[in-house]
Design a protein that fits this description.
Strand content: under 5%
Radius of gyration: 13 Å
Helix content: 55-70%
Order of helices and strands: HHH
Shape: globular
Oligomer: single chain
Number of helices: 3
Number of domains: 1
Largest sheet: none
Structural class: mainly alpha
Number of strands: 0
């Protein structure tokens, strides 16, 4: 979990500086795939949806 927490700044920067829902369908899909990959990393450690 500690290793995943170290990604916080990188993830924050991604969402601050990258437009995921771009008009370019291919680029949008790549970005959504990246988000899904990061989500699956977190879910492989714990289901964070249970955190309040």
């Amino acid at each position: 979990m500690y290793e995943l927490i170290t990604l916080k700044d990188t993830i924050d920067t991604f969402f601050d500086e990258v437009m995921v829902n771009t008009d370019n369908a291919d680029l949008k899909q790549v970005r959504l795939n990246l988000i899904n990959w990061v989500r699956s990393l977190f879910l492989s450690v714990a289901d964070i949806s249970y955190l309040s």
